[in-house]
TrEMBL record:
Gene3D superfamilies in the cross-refs: Oxidoreductase, molybdopterin-binding domain
Domain Oxidoreductase molybdopterin-binding as annotated: residue spans: 309-444
Region (Disordered): 223-242
Source organism per UniProt: Micromonospora mirobrigensis
Keywords, sorted A to Z: Membrane, Transmembrane, Transmembrane helix
Signal peptide: none
Name of this protein: Sulfoxide reductase catalytic subunit YedY
Transmembrane segments: 53-80, 115-136, 157-182, 188-206, 252-270
MF-aspect GO terms: oxidoreductase activity
Length: 450
């Protein structure tokens, strides 16, 4: 038995008649028709550490982190270029947020936003599970609501819980390239994110005053297991009806949750830090992509793209089109043009990124060969014939950046076939899927074309 009995009032709260709102008859009728086993299931959750304080601490952690996940998700959608018709999903109707041309500086911008979005989504899994565990007895309340206001509250909670579980599950499957669901990930993740965001804002508006009150109350983090007792009965029913003996303290719950989050962070951060690549056990493309200067991860290999060796052999030509002329250049002709070297990151939507040293021809120098002198766009096409990302459109700021390259070499050697030989696009802060590989054609458009 626990050395500290449940606080006075626990039994009274469990047996006292609940307060009902309008229409009272409906709620009382539901109360009288209780489903079989609902009381037994609800009474089985007896941990004395559950209560407003623990739930509020976990909620405060999520309240800090989840907005970052939402904002970085929106920024990543903007980075894909909705103005150029290449963000997914394309037609979002009135859910269209304010957009802008994605900047090229700082060069690591997309690496940070996408890396933070994916890493936080993984790291928060233990916190989300702990938060759900802290409120799980509420799922067995009967009747499920006692007033119209509570119906709306429970509906927002249903959308919140369902939304975060859906976003987390599909996101984790996506970064592992496990497309087990029969729908388009981009569309589902976009609309699921909006549903979750609306539910989160509604839930915070309802619960924030209670969370603040609970956090201002007496702290429980330093209470050892032997002295752990239930919190006083609360209006939300988070405290167990008939608490059992404590087997872990609230500090232990928080330590276990935080430890799980730190462990996932340690297994994930190597996706974005080259020096820690071997620690990234969750990296879907492997921790050892190969030796040599081309030994860094790839998302889509040359064989997966269906690009044959004959396509990239001696007969390969790059077609460059502009307002004044069209030219065809082989690799020798490209290597004869002024070469520029830049150390730039490349970041994938699945969360991994890497920084390498690229050498090639500036895009603005290629534009100068065919006109216009100040291109508004550059449409890049790949030898890859199918797929969502076999072409990309770059806006004027991306084309004109001094480090925007048609890369021919990486780390002092020719590109490997998997990295885009004979030529690929590298632009600062550009999403990796738009750094087109196996380039066959670039068309520069003027202001009128844009």
């Amino acid at each position: 038995m626990s050395p500290h009995p449940p606080p006075t009032g626990s039994d009274e709260r469990a047996t006292a008649g609940p307060a009902y709102g309008f229409p009272t008859g409906l709620w009382r009728g539901l109360e009288r028709r209780r489903p079989p086993g609902v009381d037994a299931v609800a009474a089985a959750w007896r941990s004395p550490v559950r209560g407003p304080w623990l739930t509020s601490v976990l909620g405060a952690a999520l309240l800090v982190a989840l907005p970052l996940v939402v904002v970085t998700g929106l920024l990543d959608w903007i980075a894909y270029g909705p103005r150029l018709g290449q963000a997914f999903p394309r037609d979002v109707g009135w859910l269209h947020p304010p957009v802008f041309d994605w900047p090229t500086r700082p060069a690591w911008l997309f690496r940070v936003t996408q890396g933070l979005h994916v890493t936080l989504g993984i790291v928060l899994v233990p916190v989300v599970l702990a938060k759900l565990w802290s409120v799980v007895p509420k799922l067995f309340d009967w009747p499920p609501a006692r007033s119209p206001a509570q119906v709306l509250e429970r509906l927002s909670l249903l959308l919140l819980v369902g939304g975060i579980l859906f976003q987390t599950a599909t996101g984790l499957l996506n970064i592992q390239y496990a497309y087990l669901f029969g729908f388009d990930f981009y569309t589902a993740h976009w609309y699921g994110g909006w549903i979750f965001t609306v539910a989160l804002v509604s839930h915070v508006a309802i619960k924030l005053p209670r969370m603040v009150t609970a956090l201002r109350g007496p702290g429980f983090a330093r209470t050892p297991v032997a002295a752990t007792t239930p919190e006083p009965p609360d209006r939300d029913g988070l405290v167990a009806r008939r608490p059992g003996p404590a087997t872990v303290s609230r500090r232990g719950v928080l330590a276990l949750t935080g430890g799980g989050a730190l462990l996932l962070a340690a297994l994930t951060v190597g996706q974005s830090v080259d020096a820690l690549r071997r620690t990234a056990l969750l990296l879907p493309r492997g921790r050892r992509p190969g030796p040599g200067p081309n030994g860094f991860p790839v998302n889509r290999t040359v064989s997966a793209a269906g690009v044959a060796p004959a396509d990239t052999g001696a007969g390969w030509r790059l077609t460059v089109r502009g307002a004044d002329r069209t030219v065809a250049l082989d690799r020798a002709a490209l290597l004869a043009l002024p070469q520029h070297t830049a150390r730039l990151p490349i970041a994938c939507v699945e969360g991994w990124s890497t920084e390498q040293t690229w050498t090639g021809v500036r895009l603005r120098d290629l534009a100068a060969l065919v006109g216009p002198s100040d291109p508004a766009t550059a449409r890049v096409r790949s030898l890859e014939r199918a797929g969502l990302f076999n072409q990309a459109v770059l806006h004027a700021g991306q084309v004109g950046d001094g480090d925007a390259l048609l890369a021919l070499r990486v780390n002092g050697v020719d590109l490997a076939p998997d990295h885009g030989f004979p030529a690929r696009i590298i632009v600062p802060a550009l999403p990796g899927v738009h750094c087109t590989k196996w380039v066959r054609e670039i068309t520069f458009g003027g202001r009128g074309d844009a």
